[in-house]
Design brief:
7-stranded antiparallel beta sheet, about 210 residues, 4 helices
């Protein structure tokens, strides 16, 4: 079940609230059929290393479980170490939100944490998102400690943001792939000079795992 901690809670809870307002329904009220399993990269085809060299505009993503397909090597590269802890949540899980209330999550996602606290996360909303709703999410606020940044294309439309809290910096990319709103984040206490590049590479791994 999802643990709402640190900047991941700030960014994720804001996005979840925006989606609920935009859609006006829940996945539990409108259950979706099981999504098809994403296909692996063809043998011999190199995986893209960063979003700068990866065309995400025409990629579709499943609105279902994908975490078991994320590359272990990609996770270690994003964290800079092997994960010391991991967690996964699924549509309908009951969890406590940052304001103390409890609600059922409307997404499929996962998070890996290194010994130094670095976190790599990814999740996809279970309800479908239209392009008009996605544009509203792109224009939405991400909290007082967050701001939009210049990021590589991550679906269409997409938005990149950075949040800070004390010594922690978190970069996030969100975007629409078909009818799926996909988010990837990387948070670290170390100097964030290479964080955009590491986040870009991490988000490629997420798309590759979640693509249909």
């Amino acid at each position: 079940m999802r643990r709402w901690t640190g900047l991941a809670a700030l960014a994720a809870s804001t996005a979840a609230t925006g989606l609920a307002v935009a859609i006006g329904t829940t996945a539990l009220q409108d259950p979706e059929p099981s999504a098809p399993r994403p296909q692996a990269q063809p043998d011999g085809q190199p995986e893209p290393s960063s979003l700068a060299s990866y065309d995400t505009a025409e990629i579709n993503v499943v609105r279902g479980p994908f975490c078991d397909r994320v590359s272990p090597t990609g996770i270690e590269h994003a964290l800079g170490d092997v994960p010391a802890d991991s967690e996964e949540w699924t549509n309908g899980d009951l969890d406590r939100l940052p304001d103390g209330t409890r609600d059922r999550v409307q997404e499929f996602g996962c998070r890996w944490t290194a010994a130094d606290g670095t976190q790599a996360s990814a999740w996809v909303f279970a309800p479908p998102v239209t392009r008009a709703q996605a544009r509203e999410l792109v224009r939405g606020s991400f909290g007082e400690r967050c701001g939009t940044t210049q990021g590589d294309q991550y679906g269409a439309p997409s938005v990149a943001s950075r949040c800070t809290a004390g010594a922690v910096t978190e970069d996030t990319l969100r975007g629409l792939f078909g009818d799926a709103w996909l988010t990837c984040t990387l948070a670290t206490r170390s100097e964030p000079t290479d964080l955009p590049e590491r986040t870009s590479e991490w988000c490629v791994q997420v798309v590759e795992a979640a693509r249909s």
